[in-house]
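chain below, 196 aa
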Amino acid sequence: MPRAGLTTDRVVAAAADLADETGFESVTVSALARHFGVKDASLYTHVRNLQDLRVRVALLAGGELIDEIAVAVAGRAGREALAAFAGAYRAYALRHPGRYAATRIRVDQSLVADSPALRRTAEITYGMLRAYGLTEPDLTDAVRLLRSTFHGYCALEASGGFGAPRDVQASWDKAVDALHVALENWPRETEGPRGH
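prediction:
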């Protein structure tokens, strides 16, 4: 492709597509330059370096993911919202493995604060959990539980890590049910330590 017409958005979108095709770790400025048929230097007018490119892919993917989750959870609450949230999360992770991997990288908190998509992620996630009556610090703990459960399940599923004959979807549904029960019966911080 000719250099004309290259924009930062186009470069980042191509990097996200490349991540889905070949894996996020294989996305480099050189690989992207080859994709566009240009020299590496041509891309440095659009991204500062590899880290900048990867962060931009992470922000793009995070925005796409929360857009899909927002549509799924709209008008729902409780277990129905949790299941919709979880389903949209899993579907995106399995459909876009490279983009999803990008959402797992550490992004500077100042960039998070400046990102409407990532602020929206917090609003939707915390909003869903507030319906369970949770407040801080329990909200943060619950977000970490959901994130680690969803990510762990998706990572194992994507790598073929579930070998038992049990249907993977049935196990996913049970996991969501278990999370719902856990959220409804959350050991709130204000209750103090429980007895042994």
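The mean pLDDT is 92. The radius of gyration is 19 Å.
thats it, cya
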